[in-house]
Design brief:
Elements: H1 7-19, H2 22-29, H3 33-47, E1 52-54, E2 59-61, H4 63-86, E3 94-99, H5 101-118, E4 123-128, E5 142-147, E6 154-167, H6 179-183, E7 187-190, H7 196-203, E8 214-217, H8 220-228, E9 234-237, H9 238-246, E10 259-270, H10 277-294
Parallel strand pairs: 3-4, 3-5, 7-8
Antiparallel strand pairs: 1-2, 5-10, 6-9, 6-10
Length: 295
């Protein structure tokens, strides 16, 4: 069978192709316009053909795009219709949670295991995604996301604040951070959160520093792997990097205290679901656990 493109990318394409607007498509699929644009560029690279003609204030479909929209639009509508037809009404003792992949593996899963031991009647199904999935229907009950706590139309309970510090592959001689030391390294980051290094540098008195070399990755785990393999300096929160630090694959090269970020990790959900028993149990368990560990 031929390699198929991502279903999510096709859904975004159909929304963009029908609206002829990345901004309108972004509202429909609950992404940012820039995320829609990146998705479409990636789909075009994968298919090897342009789907859109891009102008300053408008979009047009190419001939290939018109053909692709006609076929995929029908397919997506059929998938949505048949999925809804066979989907049973889920009991509220099962929760579906959308989570960032790096957060799921390093922080969430151990806590879900402990919750399951206390509440064997509560099942939590986890789906990983870098995007804030649509919470307006019954596909997902809640999400865990990194940000400043403001998502339109949704409630957000902060799990914990985030304090970051640089990490690198061993061996290093721990010392104070300087511009010269940073000049010798590549500063690694995550594309979705490009301001983390600037926040950290301001916090350690280097707000005027401009990195000579940077490199961005799609997710935290890939960034940590890059740092562990000697490709540069990464910023880490202890909650996410414990495994790397305990195994000695990453070490702290500088002596400065961690810097608190403006962003944090939040449990996000619709306001009208706040009092549902299963969601209330999950919220209470995760928030209480996070707060206990911050003490």
């Amino acid at each position: 069978m031929a390699r198929l493109p991502s279903l999510r990318s096709v859904v975004v394409f159909v929304a963009a192709g029908r609206a002829l607007s990345f901004t309108e498509a972004a509202r429909a699929v609950h992404l940012t316009p820039s995320a829609v644009s990146r998705r479409m560029s990636g789909l075009e690279r994968e298919l090897g053909v342009a789907l859109f003609r891009r102008f300053n204030r408008r979009l047009e479909l190419t001939r290939a795009g018109e053909r692709y929209l006609a076929a995929t639009g029908q397919a997506i509508d059929l998938i949505a219709r048949e999925s809804e037809a066979i989907r049973p009404r889920r009991r509220r003792t099962t929760l579906r949670l959308s989570v960032l992949q790096s957060f799921a593996s390093t922080w969430l899963v151990p806590r879900l295991a402990a919750l399951k031991a206390r509440r064997p009647d509560l099942d939590v199904e986890v789906e990983t995604s870098a995007e804030l999935m649509d919470l307006s229907d019954d596909r997902f009950d809640a999400a865990i996301r990194f940000g400043k706590g403001h998502w339109p139309g949704l409630r957000a309970d902060r799990l914990f604040e985030v304090r970051v510090f640089p990490v690198a592959a061993p061996p290093v001689r721990r010392r104070g951070i300087t511009s010269a030391a940073l000049d010798r390294s590549v500063l690694l980051g995550v594309a979705q959160t490009p301001d983390l290094w600037s926040q950290y540098l301001s916090g350690v008195g280097l707000g005027g520093y401009r990195p000579r070399r940077t490199q961005s990755f799609d997710n935290v785990q890939v960034m940590f792997e890059a740092a562990a393999n000697g490709l540069g300096l990464a910023l880490a929160a202890r909650e996410l990097a414990t495994g790397y630090l305990s195994a000695g694959r990453l070490v702290e090269p500088f002596c400065e205290e961690p810097v608190r970020l403006r962003q944090g990790y939040y449990l996000v959900y619709r306001a009208d679901r706040r009092d549902e028993p299963a969601l209330r149990t999950l919220r209470k368990a995760l928030v209480a656990d996070a707060h206990d560990r911050m003490r």
